[in-house]
Amino acid sequence: MENKKEFRNWLEAHRLEHPLVIAGPCSAETEEQVLKIAHELKDSDTTYLRAGIWKPRTRPGNFEGVGAIGLKWLQKAKAETGLLTATEVANRAHVDLALEHDIDLLWIGARSTVSPFIVQEIADALQGTDKVVLVKNPVNPDLALWIGAVERLYTADIKNLGVIHRGFSTYDKSKYRNNPEWQIAVDFQSKYPDIPLICDPSHITGKRDMILEVSQTALDLNYDGLMIETHYDPDNAWSDAAQQVTPDSLKQIFLDLRIRKEHDDEAGYQSKLSQLRAQIDVIDNAIIETMGKRMKTADSIGALKKSRNVAVLQSKRWNEILGKMILEGEEHGLSEEFILRVFKAIHQESINHQEKVING
């Protein structure tokens, strides 16, 4: 797939002092709500006013959006404030209505990206459009599925393509609503550097007090923009109340963010170095999280051994693990000396955990 550069070129032409900002309520609720938020955002860094018109909900009975009437509210907000407009589409009917109301940016949601049939239907409806079309990552951590959705849109000659990283569902408990799995987005970015990458910290975190932290990580990883859910009264929002920020909070977030610029060779070097260090930070955090999970499993093994009065150290099992890890380490360019040091330390920590369980 060749890279699409139209949206990239638009971003470079319009992004002077800050990344692209897409902000607005999770859901359009009333005309008054949409207009009030738009007016509070018009003097911020926001370029696109977003609002969910149709809301795919996990379970029936929840608020599922106001429908097409909300598109008229977005039109009015654009006329009054000059903000461009954005909404999610999930089928051909949504696309037709959004285009009829001259919505500037359409995105495909995570639940839609998982279905090639839905993506193809949307791609056919958007054939040849010059509207900006963004594709959220699929709910599950599947890079090929994400790329496949972008390829379907590319094949439909959609000129302004981009992607949104909103995190991935996981059964394990985490501090995130959707685990960022940053490496998947970084891999996408490496494969298609000309396709703009937008971060959605609202859906990654599920908590407004984590928006700044995740936004900073995204910018450190050289993302092109942010989509942040914004509501003047987030605690009483009709959907996703916990993850929305006020317009004033959004403005403060952008004052607090460190935005790296490239003006010369030295600045370019520093920017690239910061990006690579941010990738290291992401990987280190994943290592710590994985080690924590490993030690919880060691605790469970300790409890099982205690119930059977079995010794903590099982030499045969330890030697099998060590041999296997040395071989796998070689495949990843890691020396035997390094593997021995690391896994001996891990093994000792595991023994400490098990002994603590056994000794009560």
UniProtKB/TrEMBL annotation:
The Chorismate mutase domain, residue ranges: 267-358
SUPFAM superfamilies: Aldolase, Chorismate mutase II
SMART domains listed in its UniProt record: CM_2
Taxonomic superkingdom: Bacteria
A single BP term in Gene Ontology: chorismate metabolic process
Keyword Transferase attributed: yes
Pfam families named in the record: CM_2, DAHP_synth_1
UniProt keyword list: Transferase
MF (Gene Ontology): chorismate mutase activity; transferase activity
Top EC category: isomerase
Entry EC no(s): 5.4.99.5
Presence of the UniProt keyword Transferase in the record: yes
Annotated protein name in UniProt: chorismate mutase
Species of origin: Nonlabens marinus S1-08
